[in-house]
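Page header: ASSEMBLY MODEL / two components / 845 residues total.
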Amino acid sequence: MTYAEALAASVVRSVSVVLLGLAAAEVLAEWVRRSPSPGARRMRLACLALPFLTPNLVVGFGYRGVSLTLLNQPLWNELLYFALVSFELAPAAAWLLLFASPPAVSAEGLACARLVRCERGLGWRHWLDLWRRGPASQRFAPAALLFLLSFQEPELASLMQVRSWTERVFTDHTRGLPAVETIRLVLWPVLIQLAWLWPLLRQLRSARAWNLSEGARGAAAMACIRTLRGRTVSILAMFWTSLSIAFVLIAPGVHLVRSIWHSGRTIALQPMWIRELGDGLLLAVTCGGLAWCGAALAAAQWSAARRPVGGSGMRSEGLSLLLIMSMIPGLMGSLAIGLLTSATFQTLLPGLAYTPLPLVLAELIWVWPRAVVVQRALQSRQRIARRMLALLETSPLKQQQVSAIRLWWRVFGQAGAGGLLLVAWWTYLELMLPTLLSLPGFQPAPMLLYNHLHYGQLAALGVKLALILAIPAILAAVVGLGLRAVGRTLARQPAGIPRNPGE
Amino acid sequence: MRISHLLAVAATLSAIALTAIWWGVDQRGRDDLVVYCAHDLIYAESVINDFRDKTGISVAVLGDTEAAKSLGLVERLMRERGNPHCDVFWNNEPLATLTLAREGLLQPYQGPEAAERPAEFRGADGAWAGFGVRFRVWIVNTDAMPATEAAIDERLAADDLSKLAVAEPLYGTTLTHYSLLWNLWGPERLQEWHRSLKSRGCHFVKGNGAVKDLVASGVCDFGLTDTDDALVALDAGAPVAMLPVRVDGRTIAIANTASIVRGTKRLSDAERLVDHLLSAETEIRLANSGSGQAPVHFGVDASRLPENVAMMQEWTTQGASLAGLDQARDACLAWLQKEFAP
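Prediction written out in full:
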């Protein structure tokens, strides 16, 4: 298989994921919008989040054996991989659809155009333009996200032995390659991703909050659900969600639990595992935190440049370009990032080569595009509240200042904590960069999992995986509960404005 | 105080705390003996801990992972040429060690333990010494075919090889296997053999572990793998058996190697660790570990070896010579890369 063929296979697969994932996301988003109550909405969102947040190593671990049995049916193996990736990513697209900005051409506008077409005969170009500014405009960001995440996916592809450019780049490096060759190899994948990334960021810039009142609520929602369309959406969404959870979470989870059941001895053989776990968490918190803060600062700069008063269009465009350029290295894939960072430090900064800096920097480069996209998506929901917050903060009334804190927590704090956790979670589970760049004595736990797979130490892998996944989740839950308690304390204080200031 | 100020204070405090922790991490290995270890850490750690307990020398280990395959420690040692960070390199196969020795990256050391093994398991100049040997083996699903050399030869001569699995020979011990064939048979014969396997439907998969799984699960009837992988299947009770691969009557023995990196600032401690790795005690520990590696030390008491490993000891004396194989490896890999990644 040539490099061009591997690249083409990845592109075709990602485009297929876009088509299926987008169709599924439409149904899932509508299902969430039609939730009969806030509690039901939270439950539905949680169901969508589960497959998206399941680490690919767990999924790969669960399906590696199945994939091997499909050795003589590569098409089935490819289909299985395609289905798993679609199940994992469709919820992310649904999430974007939920707060996509309203199209410039509304459904009513399109209906009018259709009437006009019947009467006067609209040309296909005009019709295409209406479609581009209408329904297509809301779907581009989710489609781009689906493409980018499926195109970058390396671990599941490697464990399930499907053709992909990430696997092929690895093979090309078996004899070692000079840095220039590495850059040449990853140039096309970077360009392909850029073609999707640029419009994605532009789209997210204009997105806004999804307001519950725009969806069906309460009695109206129940009426909607009772319609044929509502019932069909519910059935389809529940079918997709059940399949996603069964394939992505339950099947690999059962495999995992079965392994844990038969283990215990191996942990005693490895007294270092607590330190390894701590190393993994330290790396994730540092790089996730830095990337998140950096993305927040970049977003704030961009917002300032776009303000109607005092902002400048040229400065805004310049900052956009700068932001896109800063994301290019992160699109090269973790293998190329690791090798190039190592070569750079060994040749240009040998004094810093044996410090944690190369690893932290490489992780930052890798996670930066994701942090920017997540930050941008969240920021778009906060524009109106930001103005309100500025007014409350500068108020001379103490009560209004307290309300500012409460508003900040409800709109910015909760979303920011969620975004930060997501970015840290991605960093935590990245395997290649610590393998290439970590220091002696610094071994993040997730990095060692491949060895257990290789030696068939399923019990040890199961125990480690369980610990690796459970401990950050428990820590996050404890931190979340603490923050929630603080938020509730603030909410109990008397304030001069209503509790829900229309975020 | 404004929220942005509160956030700035929180961020500053977090940054200070994280910087302090990272400083601690940075200092962690500064005074330690640094070991790059390609052998699976789950088994290697007990050997290193034993050394720590006996000598009081603190050791920082950097392990390799299957995720990085050949791009891990060997490439890293190459990149660190002239600015070495590693003191001792524990490799799990000899070919890359031979390449490092040829490149002048290893420091010769003729310790007392190195002499306690056959000449084919130590470098002539003392740049490396071997211990804990794995073998290339045929793994056979006994439900599908008899585990005999005659049965394997018969199947290999057939037109259909869709029930045979071999790891892609771009990495690890399969690359060593191919390099040996390149040396013994010559490039033309090896290439013809490889293309013949391919044209008759042989499956080239990612890694020896995958070969083992395919044969153990019955998807394939037989395959080429290593003893450590085959032993995992045997331990799990899979219907498999293993037979040594023989090339011109010789087995393919793949030893771990211990070597000192040139430029180390802790030569004396590095020598003590190499002696520890090459000792009979370490060999027995590795033989009894899950990876079941055969000892080559003259002083090993055979009664302390598990049954499977005792059987392998006989194969050790029949091993083909790996001398000069590093150059064959380079040429072979260049060809293989064109085959698998044109």
